[in-house]
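Re: the 71-residue chain
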Amino acid sequence: VVAYEASSQLLWLEFRSGKVYRYFDIPPAVHQNLIQAVSKGAYFNRIIRGRFPYSREAHDIRQSRVSSSQS
């Protein structure tokens, strides 16, 4: 899953593991190219990983879904 906020150039990525990371200072063109990439994983590894600051979100999406479905 990919989410992007152009005004603050924040990119959120949910990986297959369910872990969510927020990437900072992502130009709009990088986001657009990621969305259009044939292989998002290859694009991420080549263009984003190790080149932009990031933080891991406190809650993983899958953990939240499991917790809320058990309530």
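The longest helix spans residues 61-70.
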